[in-house]
DNA sequence: CTTACTTCGACCAAGGTGGTCTATTTATAT
DNA sequence: ATATAAATAGACCACCTTGGTCGAAGTAAG
């Protein structure tokens, strides 16, 4: 794998993107190394020179994906922010950030989660699980629930706000489908999103008098 | 196809379930007729006797799925009910009802939607689209928005309630994963769900004084 | 000119593809 | 009981894709 780490960044990215995309859209078995090399525009031999087998390529990708997720997580999510909705802003920026730079990463990880364990070595499965737990912790630990309205259980409020933001994002993403993120002016969408969050505050926070 | 329609219901169901499952979990190209016949416990020849080609089987399934969805829709969704959340109860019952009797139907339709148009004939694509529109209409037409709190736009409230119920269902479904619906006592879960809906009313409806 | 490394893609055996066909069983009709 | 027709299984077909190999050509360095 040394030989792979040494490549120019652009070729490396082409290969990683191609491979992640292939494993995102197909199960391990159905994913095709032939399609990967074609999409990455390299010869068949090279892929098996860099990664000796399909399986080891797969494991490399999983590890790579975890690494990216963790980097972005510490970068974007400020777990000292006590206001839940403010913290969710960071989470949204994280998702968009990953989406811009690695469009298929979430899809890939989702596919990995569905995979029969046999293809995902125990240590990687463990790291994935750990990542999930830590992500939850970073999202929910130390939230100030005093701000929430008192006629609804605060755990419920956390979930409701989460689901609402999830729904909003899905709708937005569907609307922006096909368009190229890189050359898109996102600022107005953020503005709208912030307004949406303010609305959530109006709904779920105590009314200031 | 006549020959197929005549079969005993149990064998018919075995074949339909196997085929829908296969096309739900794989794209058209990747779906395998071999796996279908093995799973349905019939000989290879029979499948191609009933449906002459893979493509025509696929189209039969799509048509079949649309039919089921429409039946359930008129059965469960009462579009004369003016209270949105009450109407959503029907929608939830519809989903569970379909899920019980055809576990992979939603997944299948989702997969069909993703398919490159070429494999889905225009007329079926049109029927699918029409079904979606009518479903939306049955959900949202004639809703009494007077009940909603007035400090938030009522269209937003409709969406927020929808997303919240969606999130709740997903969470519940994840919790019940793997368990067999048929032999499951659902009543307590409905109870909890109704309580959840009452909470949504508290949040999104005008407070009665 | 030699040595070492990179790159490609033809090639391999193995196995899966949609679809056909024959042989046999089962049901129906006379 | 006999003849005819329908239902059924699965071996088989030609074709394609699979993960992986390997030799040859290209490139760079010493």
UniProtKB/TrEMBL annotation, chains A, B:
InterPro entries: DNA-bd_HTH_TetR-type_CS, Homeodomain-like_sf, HTH-type_TetR-like_transc_reg, HTH_TetR, Tet_transcr_reg_TetR-rel_C_sf. Residues 9-69 form the HTH tetR-type domain. Pfam families: TetR_N. PROSITE patterns: HTH_TETR_1 (PS01081), HTH_TETR_2 (PS50977). This is TetR/AcrR family transcriptional regulator. Keywords: DNA-binding. It comes from Sporosarcina aquimarina. Residues 32-51 bind DNA. It comes from the Bacteria.
